[in-house]
Amino acid sequence: MSENEISIVEAQANDVASIGALIARAFHDDPMSVHVFPDPEKRRKSIAWMMGRCARYGLLYGLVEATEEQTGVAVWTSPAHHKMTLWRMFRAGMLSMPFRLGWRTFRRFYSFGKTSQRMHDQAISGPHWYLFVLAVEPSRQGQGIGGSLLKRGLAWADRDGLPIYLETAGEANLAFYGKHGFEAVDKCPVSGTDAHLWGMLRQPQPAAKEG
Q: Which of 72, 110, 125, 144 is buried most deeply by CB count within 10 Å?
């Protein structure tokens, strides 16, 4: 399937549960997922619930796009809302995480979140788009879905003359994002694990001249 054949639509509030489940499948073996949720039987359900809240945050404070068949999803926060606040987290249903996930799991997640936020703050402070999560159904990876979802966000940022920031814990993802103009600007070990988190930044790029 070519990228031109992939139909992408804006997600709606009633898509939150299915989007969370999709992200859970895509990130089941991600280093951070394994660290935060070491029990594989609980991991998928916990990630699905947590990512459903993240999708809701994107719907409230950015944009969530998915393929028409929900084989891939991109959750973005807008330049005005990339910084999480308690009020925004409350509206998205995130403040119940300690009770839903359990305190031990939440402490691991909170430690990871602090590392992620510190890297984000150090990498960029001005207005920018933030790619919260990009996920593709495992059986459909390598078919251009992730690239199609990503390119739409790149076009918005280039149109607005704004950079994009993201984090990834998968070293294999560096080449994929690098192909789309991102550069690794930070690498940080995650406390208590052998894993690392990379911060990546893409500066706006001028439109190609015709002719």
A: 72
